[in-house]
Amino acid sequence: MASVCFYFQVHQPWRVKRFRVFDIGKGGRYFDERSATNLNNERIFRKVAEKCYLPTNKLMLKMLRAEPRFRVSYSLSGVLMEQMETFGEDVLESFRRLAKTGQVEFLAETYYHSLAFLYSPEEFDEQVRMHSEKLHSLFGVTPRVFRNTELIYNNDLARAAERLGFHGVIAEGADHILGWQSPNFVYRPQGTTLSLLLKNYKLSDDIAFRFGSRAWEEYPLTANKFAEWINAINGNGHTVNLFMDYETFGEHQWEDTGIFKFLESLPREVLKHPDNDFVTVSEAVERYAPVGELDVTNFVSWADTERDLSAWLSNEIQHDAISRLYELEPAVRASSDRRLMEDWRRLTTSDHFYYMCTKWWNDGDVHKYFNPYESPYDAFISYMNVLEDLKLRLGATTTTT
Amino acid sequence: MALRVLMFGWEFPPRSSGGLGVACFGLTRALAQEGVRVRFVLPKRMDPEVNYMDFSFADIPDMVATGVNSMLYPYVTEEGYLSYYQQAGVGIYGSTLFEEVLAYAARAAAIARASSFDVIHAHDWLSFLAGLEAKRVSGKPLIMHVHATEFDRTGGTGVNAHVYDVERRGMQGADRVIAVSQWTKNIIVERYGISPEKVEVVHNGIEERDFRRLPSELDSWKAQGKKIVLFHGRVTLQKGPDYFLRTARRVLEFYPQAVFVVSGIGDMLPQMVREAVLLGISDKVFFVGALWDEERDKMYQAADVVMMPSVSEPFGIVPLEALANGAPVLISKQSGVSEVLSHALKSDFWDTDEMANKIVSILKNESLQSTLRTNGNREASAVTWSKAAQKVLGVYQGLAHV
Fold it and tell me: What is the pTM of this model?
């Protein structure tokens, strides 16, 4: 068998608005930029909704109805779900329709798409719990497979997922953790009884990054050709894990690349081979027993060529910002001020640290493209001013109580 | 056979008053390393009997410099020139700056007749007429190199029509124009009506040299927890010293331990001293005069941040020098150097609030200072004269048939 397992990440951060030293202590909010810039969260959400979420969901619904064997899995971050409620009832409704098909699974993650696992076990647990509750309240489902922010993973993460009651976890199928082994099997994370699904980064990136590239020798990629690559795995693998950002469809790969037509034709082409099918992440976990144990000591992620933590944590400003954020955690908890807590948590989102990344000479263009700030330094300056404002608010709550 | 260039400039180290001389020196030396032979012609005050003479620089063995007897010196206005001229008390040559420019051009023609070369390369308007004359008598291709336009020098108001005319005629008469930045190219295209295809952007570089940590004379300030914000450059409209002072006042509202140093002289200095008093920050602003070489590097090294709030800066070597000395920089977006630096804080020169916001942040956050310093230093060290020379050589080769 070769089971195709699609998982799409759907996430939008609450970007911090331009917050200057003069704004500190003035009672202003942090995430409500109204200007026509890329810091305006509503503007970005609507842009992506029109280009990607709405048309892709519409197409997915059509495909799921047309082909009962088709399956997809999604991970919607908690902050994305908040933004759907605030800026996009239409998008929320379209995901509800997908959920009702019974062919769609939702994954668990940290509500705030955060790096909490690296800094605070307590906060991590709470954000995972919050996320499951949110999924349940919006879609009536309970997730069973865990995906950590940006597929950041190691043995400890797998143990935490097990402790929280999940039966599966997913990670990047990076060469340096697999060695000679194939990503197309289910593995057992060392020291757990969980199942681990690994992203087939070659085939995933063919769609997510290379699809529209005319310089690529496989251009143009047709569904027929892609299905043949999947057929080649038949017999020497169980699952082909195609994990990518949902924004691939229509936003990273524009409609004129033919990405939607490719997607629409794919189920038919894949199912032409009698031994192929589609699975959700839990179906993969249930159907295929782990073929071996995988020992991952160092953190691995799906970002950049390094596939490590360096996109969020490599320079001094990133380390400084995140450690000053988590220094405030005890005081924020002690304040039991719900708005303060929510603001602090929105600041835990990994994107804030990604925007401060300065290793542009390696994968520069990707970082520049995804950065709504003029520079990583501008991202840091607004963020640190916001932290200082938050600190003042904390001081105010402790003196009044 | 080596490519031979007849080059016209108007200043050269060690006797230079600004970036142009440094740029000509850096470019010429790098061209010499590419095997180009340069005859560098520049105005020089000499015995009135002498029209011109050759001399040489120990640092660039392949270059011959030709001094033309003249009182031209850079960064003058017509009015400034006259007062300088009267002070000097010399009356043999032209009595106005323009007559002097014409006299320089006339001597250029004589030099062009007497020497052999493949291309002519003239730097900025004072030498443009010389370049045109050399082309007229020799028929060789002419390149005009624009380091600054009249619009930069005047901040856009009070543009001298004569200067503008010389600049425009020079660029029209040239076979190619080199602009030191896209910023400058845009001015050349929009304000002078030169076709964009004719204009090549060649960014300046900085001298490659080893970083040397120098003893600071400002340790006592540092020991008191003071943070130093530096303005280094000519104190003149183009460089935005007034925006520096207004930013200083705003910064001090949020960061009282900051001190502001102005190193440089210029026509706006008396006005700036008065403005510091009017803004009520005269005890936090220090005017230290023009600093050169080691003194300047010491000041860069002591600075916590170097600001270049230029109103219109064709290139701007100061941020690169600062970064080479380990000082992070805040530069105006109205500058050519911002096209080659991504690891710098940037702002519009007029947005003193935004500049204050950034300065306060850099003074408060050691991590920001350090990240900008490390990344900026690496980036600046890649902005070399050798890259610039290779592009210039490409322009020569496209024109010269040798």
Answer: 0.91
